Amino acid sequence: MNEIIDRVRSIIDHYGLTVSTFADKIGVQRSSISHLLNERNKPSLDFVMKVVLAYPSVDLYWLLYGKGDFPNPERENDSDTSTLSKKEIKLSNAITTHGSKSSASTTKEPIRIALFYVDGTFESFEIKK
């Protein structure tokens, strides 16, 4: 488990962050990072996913197993904003595609839309007819 903690320290050092800034960026309490770095707590899946989503250059397999490269050269230039925009575009396209009437005899109409945020929260919207 110490190896994951070492990789988290590498991420913090690579970006020149303080522990507080890193915690704020991934959306966890500062004390959680402190407990993790002091090996009082183990990283949860939620924590790992928040790191990967907040820092596109962090490869999931590298963070979990140390396999691969950090920073990931293919994703080093991605920014959080461009990644989020791509996700928003995909969601928008999915909504448009599913919400439009097709020429087929059966149509699919959405009944609920859920938005999942990097900080682990979500919102659900019912489609009104």
Describe the 3D structure.
With 129 residues, the protein is mainly alpha-helical. The chain has six helices and two strands; from the N terminus they run ααααααββ. The protein has helices spanning 2-14, 19-26, 30-37, 45-54, 60-65, 80-99, and strands at residues 112-116, 122-126. Strands 1-2 form a two-stranded antiparallel sheet. A hairpin with a 5-residue loop joins strand 1 (112-116) and strand 2. Helix 2 (19-26) crosses helix 3 (30-37). The longest helix has 20 residues, at 80-99. It is elongated and about 55 Å long. The chain starts with a helix and ends with a strand. The model is unreliable at 78-89 and 95-104 (pLDDT under 50).
List the helices and strands and how they pair.
Elements: H1 2-14, H2 19-26, H3 30-37, H4 45-54, H5 60-65, H6 80-99, E1 112-116, E2 122-126
Antiparallel strand pairs: 1-2
Helix pairs in contact: 2-3
